[in-house]
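Hi all, long-time lurker, first post. I run a small reading group and we've been trying to get comfortable going from sequence to structure in the token notation. Rather than ask abstract questions, I figured I'd post a concrete chain and ask someone more experienced to write out its structure so we can walk through it together at our next meeting. Sequence below, copied exactly:
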Amino acid sequence: MEKKRYWGIRAKIILCTVLCVVAVGLGSSLYLYQYMQRIISEKMAQIDQLNAGTITARLDDALERARTLQIYCGNSGRAAEALSHTPGRPGAAGAALSAQNALNTYLRTSPIDGYIHRLVVFNEAGVCVSAVTVYDGALQDLSNLLDSPQFRAWKEEGEAPFSRLYPSLNPRGADCFALFAPVYSHTSSRRVGYVYIELSPAIITDVLAPYNGLNLFFIQTAARDRLTTPGAVPLAAALGPEAAQGGEFTYDGTLYALQRYPTATQGLTLCSCVNQTQLQAADHEILFSVVTVILMIVLIAVFVLVLLTHYITTPIRRITEKINRIALNDYSYDPELERPRSEMGEIGARLNELGLGFQQLLSEAIALHDERAKIEMDLLQSQVNPHFLYNTLNSIHWMAVVQKNTGIEKMVKSLVSLLKNISKGRGCRTRSPWRRSWSCWTTM
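-- Answer (accepted) --
Happy to help. Here is the structure in token form:
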């Protein structure tokens, strides 16, 4: 009979374990990977937005202080009085000195005095009063201010003060923001002059410096001037002028994504360069962690498989071998079947009892068969009447004598003698009258 082929329990356990590891491990790991990736991206976006919100708040506060200083100077009565005098007339010099003292006071009490390169009140009639700033001395020529592009742009277009950078009017000065405001007479609504504040871009870059860690921030004006810390200047310069919100670009082998945040100050936009390469490196670390988790799951699955093999498949294999031995009439006792302290041990104990029961039943069946054969033989012997048999043989003997057939006569006579010996329990198997029995056999 051909043996049936089937999947063993060990193979099924291995298959189920592998499927469970693949389904649960990979599924949960991929979900964990995507979840962690999303969480990191969201947290990075939240941190970037939080930093951007802090930067814009600090920028707006610093620039608002500059406008406040400009308003104080524009509303100063002493500045308006100095601008109302004609140069060279009596009282003009005293009024100018008083206005300068007022400007110095306003400047020194301002938290942003270190960023003010020039603070000037002037008019087109030739009056010019300058506060003492980080640059010593006064303007070399008032005509430089009157002819400056920033003054012309403000008078003609009313351009926002922070929409672009202008060349500084100070010798060897860097580009700056130019703030203009009119000064009106306190006795009438007549404009008597202007306030000019030359503001250093450092007021913006110093705010950005603490936040240029993972992501790089810079400020872009309406004229596309970009202000940032010295380390981020090449990156800001590498960005195209028409870079879109969320657009990606590469600088020095690093991938960045551009994010824009509007500020409350007209003409300024805060831009953030999100380091996508570093985020991808974090993704790789997460992926490595996920792979490590999968390997740990596989190791745990192998450990569980070993336990299952020890507690399930090995006892089942022994039970199968015991059943095969029973099929081959081997009913011997196997103590290993009862070693597991579980249901498998109970099954093994029942199999041992079954084998011993089969062996006892077989011994009893053999004994009953022998006893039955003996009883049948005794019954058969009891059913044969010796006297009837002797009379029949004697009749045959005398017929042979009458017919003078000596061969039949001798044979029948020997058979009668042999039967008498057998009926007495001797016959050819006894040793007492063995000679007489032997003569009977030889005669027959």
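A couple of things your group might point at:
The first strand starts at residue 116 and ends at 122.
The beta strands are 116-122, 128-130, 177-184, 191-199, 216-221, 226-227, 248-251, 254-262, 268-275.
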